Every structure is written in C-alpha cells, then in structure tokens.
Amino acid sequence: MFENKQPKRRLARLYKVAAIIAKEYSEGLGSIKQLVYAKRDKHPRIQALYALVNTLYQRKDEIQRLLKKTQLLESESRADPWVIKILITELLYGKKVLSGQTKIEQTIKGYEQIFKAHLSDSIEVPVKDETVSTKPKYVRVNTLKKTVEEAIEAFTDEGWHLIRHSDKTDYNGFIEKVAALKDGEFMVDMHVPRLLIFPPRTHFYNHPAYKNGTVILQDKASCLPVHLLAPPPGSTVLDMCAAPGMKTTQLAAALTNQGVVYAVERDTKRVGILKHIVGSSEATCVKIINKDVLDCAKKDFPGVEYILVDPSCSGSGMTERSTEAENKDLARLEKLAGFQILILRSALTRYPDAKRVAYSTCSLHPEENEEVVRQVLETNYNFKLVDAKKLLNSAWNSFGSSDYGEMGEFCLYARPDEDLTNGFFVAIFERLEEGEQNKFLNNRISNFKNTYMRQTSGKSVG
Predict the structure, then answer these.
(1) Which residues are annotated as a binding site?
(2) Which residues contribute to the annotated binding site for S-adenosyl-L-methionine?
(3) What residue numbers bound the domain in which 378 lies?
(4) Does some domain include residue 3?
(5) What is the rounded distance in angstroms from the CA atom of residue 179 to the CA atom of residue 135?
(6) What is the pLDDT of residues 157-176, one digit of tens each?
C-alpha cells in the first residue's frame, strides 16, 4: 500500500536566484546590476531581483548583527546562508511578508518578532535610497549591431527628446544639462560618443534594445579606460582581467570585430558570465581564455599591441558600495595593491609589441591608484606615463592627487559627486620612442639595480 505524500513545497525561484546573485556579488564576480542581467534567463523579474539584492547589501550590517545575536546560521546549518539573508531582507525591508510554506520560510517567520526586538534596541542607520539617486542611467550603443545615429533615431521615434551639448570646452555646462535631464529626455556623452545618457529613473529591463543587445548598460566611468586606450580596427588587444565582459565587448566594438581581443579570466564562474555577455553582443573577434594571466607572456598572445589592465580592487568607487570608500581596510588595500603592481608590471614587461597600456580601477583609494603607478613607473625603462587629459580631448575636472606632483596630474579620476558616474581611476602608458626617457624613473633604484647586476654577473659559480 502506497502512503499519501504531501507535495513537496518549493522555495520561490525569485529567492533562489537572488541568493545566487548575492553570493556571486560577495565573491566579486561583477556588480549587482551585471549579475542580475546575466541571470535574466533564470528569472524574468529583473527589477525585483535587483531590489532584493541591493537592499540586502544596503542593510548587510544590520542583518549580520541579527544573525549573530540569534545564531540563526548555526541553528539552521543545513540551509543556504544566502537564502536566509534574502528571506530576512524580504521580511524586514521588502514586502514584509513571506507567503511561502517551505520549512526555511516558516523558520524565518518564526524569528520575526525577535528580529524586530533586536532592531528596536539598535541605533537606526540611515540608508541611501536608490530611487532618489541623482546618477543618470548610461547605455552604450553596441555598434556591432547598430550605429549611434540609428540608435538615436530609434529613441527619438519612441518619443525621446535629444538634448544637445556641442561645446567640448564647457564641461560644467555639460554636467548641469545631465543633472537637469527630465523624463523623456536624453543626451549623447561629450567624451564617449557611443554613450547615451538618460534620467536616473529610466529602466531598460524590458526595453527591446536592451533585450536584443543593441544597447549595453555600462556606466560612463567604466567606458573611459577603453575609450582612452583607443585601439584601432585590426589591432591585437589583451584584456588581462576580462570578466564580467563590458569592457571586452567595448574593445570588440572599437575594433569593429576586425583584429583580435584576447579576453583572459582565471575564475571559472566569471568565465561563464564573460561568455554570456560576449556572446549576446556578437563580439566575434573575442577569444576567451580561462587562465591566470600572470602565467602568460608573449608566446601565449603574440603580437599584442594594446593592453587593458583592470584588476580586482576594493570597489570603493562603486556607488552601490559607497560605505567601502569611507571605511578603509588598510591590510586588504595593501594586499590588493601588491597584486595590482604585479599585474601592471607584467603588462609593461612581457609584451614587447605593446604600444599603449591602460590601467584602471573602480577605486577612489590612492593606494590602489597613484601609488601603484608610482611604484611601477620608478623601475620601468620602456614606458612613459602620458597625460590622460590630452587623450580625452575634452574638458575634465578630476585628476590624481597633488601629493604625487605631475604624475598625479597625468592620471584621471571620475568622481560620483562631480562627474555623476561611479568612482574610477585611469592611467595610460605608452612605449618610449628612441631617445625618450621615463621622467618618473627613480634613478637611485635604477643605479642600485645596474650596480648589483654588474657585481653579480662578474662572480663565478662553484
């Protein structure tokens, strides 16, 4: 005789997918938006996914305190901790109700009054409301599928009104127009001509242009490194830290799919995201390599002329991680800077055909930016730091720290409050021509190195 079994109750897919995204974000696999968009085939409610994960990270300190006080993760050790965090977020800060009948949802609901009691004993921490953000929405036209002119025409046909700004010397006036964009208005960026700018509350989740890959959601600051690297069609380019792939597809667009982009990523999970983004953009010139780029050299990527170095960083410039800019973890910064120095030196020494190298981070900390540039430049005989402002060919206001003198002036920052973008840093290096010198070479270190080499080369072994 068969027993009558109750149908298995399943957790809502929204919560499962949100938990996966939250975990991947914690591992640095991309921004929340990038990860949400990459999972849109897993769950169509992109806006709900983003809201849940974003709220979780806005409230992460409070949620962590609740978990510590209740020891919920210890008592529910068999449950996915990220599912628990997502469900707490929904119960306390989202819909404020869990309607499912799964065991874990019933468990979380059982803690509701305990959570609220602990929260009432805590000091309320103001949380930035994403809905009132003044940062505009940036979309890069994927010129592998449609020209900028065609994209502008398509948006105007939908009823959007183009606001023009033609004076490239008037950056402040440009920023004022961007900040004043109203619903139904958009602009073309004055620095990155393939970039369109829309009002802050514009949503592209369900827009046909986003769904078919005609436009790519990419912050302006993230576009600057490739824009300044400027590889022409037919070039051979190396993207040393390629995932999630926004800059990789921007490189392919710059090449018009003529030439090759070696997109290197050592993390297998991130390679999956990279393949998805590259494939949806029709970037056919991209070759994806799942390998540690520090184990690579000229033989792996022959003829490389342009290199993008956009390594892991603190992410302190990302507006959705704004608290990281205020709270420096010096030990972590030192570790990150060590890796950043290593990978930038690799770019400047292992590829003899390289003409130009772009180094960038989404950090506002000098330890990851000017200090990395200084340490690499002071021992380099083959490259010089070039003035990023001159390459930009338009007015700009934010540059490196005056503590680094002319070296700082040559580096470019994007700052959220001033430039209405995420925070970013960019430095551009070019190979020295015959007779040129690296003005930032540290001669004392160089002389010591040369003396040491002469002394050791004369010694016999044995």
Answers:
(1) 265, 292, 310
(2) 265, 292, 310
(3) 221-445
(4) no
(5) 8
(6) 999 999 999 999 999 999 99
